[in-house]
Design goal:
The structure is a single chain. The chain has 320 residues and is mainly beta. It has three helices and 21 strands. A hairpin with a 6-residue loop joins strand 8 and strand 9.
Length: 320
């Protein structure tokens, strides 16, 4: 994993180990992330002191990556679900936070710095990290990292969990904010918009290439959806965070997802923005709820299942 090497060479990252005090010695050489041992993590919030936070967890590498304002500020080893209790892949929001939580399912087991992702028991929390998947489906984190992470997150924050089937590659992605140009493509017309379902909170956007559909969620609840016209197919998975909105429009920053090899960086280009569109009326309504920190996941997969037939959860939110 080389995507953070330039940052490692330019910042003093804190390397933490189990039952050991955190140090602040700078790590100047590449490969520091690969060399992390179970229970160790890197934390450098000074790289991006402010801005929206997004978290991406790679089951393949057993690593969690934290981004603030589109910049990676932390990496940790994790322990995900073991066989028979697999951690679901997909896109989630943080539904609940509790510093001193205990499991109602597994003998009142302690789950310090718990951040709930689903109402049926999947959460981020501090726990034992043996170096391989060993949980009942939760994402276990080192105690020190779990505490630091808890301090920079909020309810509604987006967490993306990927496995081999969802490893991203470089490809053009549709930008739903782009007004359709005068062309020969049929304009989609069907959409729903119900912002009263969640009047406030963080906004997340999911774009499915196979479904040709966009879903908008606020504070983890669906407030809108629309048909999507794609001028080119979506062939891979990409994630973006909204850095700012100004007179030039929204500025979407690409999140360098783990495991994807060399990837495009920076903002969506004019070419990216011409790849697809949603109904004009829907786009106008969507623009009224966009704020810095809005997350957009563009995936080739259907919102029902991944290409391998395994379940792909998309923002599992309400207990009912």
């Amino acid at each position: 994993m080389r995507l953070l090497a330039p940052l490692l060479a330019s910042a003093a990252l804190a390397l933490a180990a189990p039952a050991a005090a955190q140090s602040t010695a700078p790590l100047m050489e590449p490969g520091a992330i690969e060399r992390l041992k179970p229970g160790e993590f890197l934390w450098a919030p000074q790289i991006a002191p402010a801005g929206p936070v997004t978290m991406i967890i790679s089951l393949k590498t057993q690593r969690a990556y934290v981004y603030r304002n589109g910049v990676p500020i932390g990496v940790s080893t994790v322990s995900s679900g073991k066989p028979g209790h697999k951690t679901p892949t997909g896109v989630f929001t943080i539904l609940q936070k509790d510093v001193d939580h205990h499991s109602s399912t597994y003998n009142n087991a302690p789950m310090p710095y718990m951040q709930r992702l689903t109402w049926d028991g999947i959460a981020l929390h501090a726990g034992s990290l043996p170096g391989y998947p060993a949980s009942h489906g939760c994402i276990r984190l080192p105690m020190g990292f779990a505490k630091l992470l808890y301090g920079v997150t909020r309810l509604g924050l987006t967490v993306v969990i990927t496995d081999d089937a969802l490893v991203p590659e470089v490809s053009p992605a549709a930008n739903p904010m782009k007004a359709p140009a005068a062309d020969q493509h049929a304009s989609p017309t069907h959409y729903s918009w119900n912002p009263e379902r969640a009047p406030t909170g963080p906004v997340s956007i999911i774009v499915s290439g196979r479904d040709r559909r966009m879903v908008v969620l606020r504070n983890g609840k669906q407030i809108g959806s629309a048909n999507l016209v794609l001028h080119e197919p979506i062939t891979t998975t990409q994630a973006f965070t909204l850095r700012a909105v100004d007179d030039a429009g929204p500025h979407w920053l690409r999140l360098p997802l783990p495991g994807g090899g060399p990837q495009a960086t920076g903002e969506l280009t004019a070419d990216d923005r011409s790849k697809g569109h949603v109904p004009d009326a829907f786009r106008a309504k969507l623009e009224t709820v966009l704020t810095p920190g809005t997350t957009m996941l563009v995936t080739r997969e259907t919102l029902a299942t991944s290409g391998t037939g395994s379940k792909l959860a998309v923002l599992v939110t309400d207990p009912e």
